[in-house]
Amino acid sequence: MHRLEPRDLTLFLAIARHGNFRRAADELGCTPSALSHALRSLEERLDVRLVNRTTRSVALTEAGKRLYNRVAPAFQEIDDAIEELNVFRGAPSGKLRINAARGAAQLALLPIVTRFLAAYPKISVDIALDSALVDLVSEGFDAGVRLGEIVSKDMIAVPLGPRQRSAYVASPALLREHAAPKHPMELTNLPCIRLRFSSGRYYAWEFERAGVSLAVEVDGRLTVDEQDLAIEAALKGTGIAFAFENQVAELIAAGHLVRVLEDWSPAYPGFYLYYPGRRQLPAALRAFVDFAKTAASTAGL
Asked: What is the CATH number of domain 164-268?
């Protein structure tokens, strides 16, 4: 058997983590075809198949699973050892990969990232937008950003901004055709823009007033999976949309949108940076966590 190089195992680990050649190739900075060829070469040298490939999926064989389970911890140990050397560097460096929902990125993450990059010129940040919760470790992310109420309890979480309040908005034209609702249940008879999660489940609009909580399954002819699209549709008079008030504050102030059921609009814990507990945080992540904590403390969070 020909001698294996660390690069051979690095590409295998990336494929195993992502279960997808394209995403693994993006991480490694090569093309999917080049990665597939490199894996085939590795399997030929080992004389064993590591990955089963079809046009739709990539899955580890039993041999591949056994190799991954033995090699992955060893590579993590190496990464941790290298990260420990950061204490001897003048300034943190490296790449930080963060997964976030679009609203979280717009309202909480991007404002702090821009300041962070100015403070740490040797660190780069890669933000991936995803409406679904992903496995940070298997997908190769350092951290994620979501509303505090949906962050798993086994994650370490750091607040990125103040509490967020919901806002239900419609265009003035729509409210000339339909009377503004006085109670959340009246939405069932009004055109609404439904929001669908990546899982396929529809978001039930949440309301709260004087200790009374309601969840309303709204109906409407338009369904979207991004709040930005819902807001755009509301501006065109298609229906009533759900958003966070900071997303639509300027549009409301300019008279382009009108808020309804404001006295029923609940507040949420706000957005949090979250990451799995590790013995040794990567230098870039440690720097960002400390930066976020300082910003939160300054803001009184």
From this structure: 3.40.190.290
